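Submission sheet (multi-component)
Chains listed below:
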Amino acid sequence: SAVISQKPSRDICQRGTSLTIQCQVDSQVTMMFWYRQQPGQSLTLIATANQGSEATYESGFVIDKFPISRPNLTFSTLTVSNMSPEDSSIYLCSVVETGFPSRGYTFGSGTRLTVV
Amino acid sequence: GQQVMQIPQYQHVQEGEDFTTYCNSSTTLSNIQWYKQRPGGHPVFLIQLVKSGEVKKQKRLTFQFGEAKKNSSLHITATQTTDVGTYFCAGTGGGSYIPTFGRGTSLIVHP
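Outcome: structure written.
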């Protein structure tokens, strides 16, 4: 399975600032996904990032708040902009590899964000 | 949109007891995946079920996909402390290729 390096692993940020989270994959993948997971909750998809095109955002998430870059097939960033305490959460990037049998989605180790 | 309901939210068991978590979808699924997330960790893929009525086993874990492809279950026999974590189902269907995650069941095993 693909190996994803995600950083930072955690951060404490002041409200009103921005944080950029990076994910590096050890192989080329077509799609990368960004999720948010609030403590004790499920995973909510923020957006899907394809190389060479704009990210596709899910309902409730907008590009101005969560701009995403996907400059190549192994790298992506998610920025959490103008942060408020409500943005405190775990952010995870993920990729899916084609093939049989399915290997499902592989997740990065996550970024635990606290906004104060 | 598609919804995947998962119960129970929490389950406490004594080591050696069995454990089951259930997922139900509002629509017919094309497949369902199961993931395990250890405390402080990230979700790790366990298995994917595709066929109606499919049953798969991984050691003490048994995964089932319902005949109508709207429900699934994960059963752990004789739990161990290493089974502690949150188990998520993730269903794909309704014309989308991206899975919808259930809320997860947190398993707590008491030694």
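Remark: Chain B touches chain A at residues 31, 33, 35, 41-48, 88, 90, 98-99, 101-104, 106 (CB under 8 Å).
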